[in-house]
Amino acid sequence: MFPAPRQRWVEAMAHEEADIRAISHRTLLVHGRDDRVIPLQTSLTLNQWVDDSQLHIFGRCGHWTQIEHADAFNALVAEFLSSS
Asked: CA spacing 20 to 30 A to 30: which of 3, 48, 55, 80?
């Protein structure tokens, strides 16, 4: 999918579905709707695989949600971390 040097790092970060499904902690997933690096379907799938997860999709946002929507991202993470 990517040039060889980059693909090596992509493969190094990959995890088996069973390992992802075994995540038992509350999980916050964030994704930029216009991300051209990681397809939105990836986060939609992760949201289905991780039982106690929530997905927030930022509109008008690419790959860097924490930079492109810093205030909203920080508020979302703070709310997630402070909730039980």
From this structure: 3
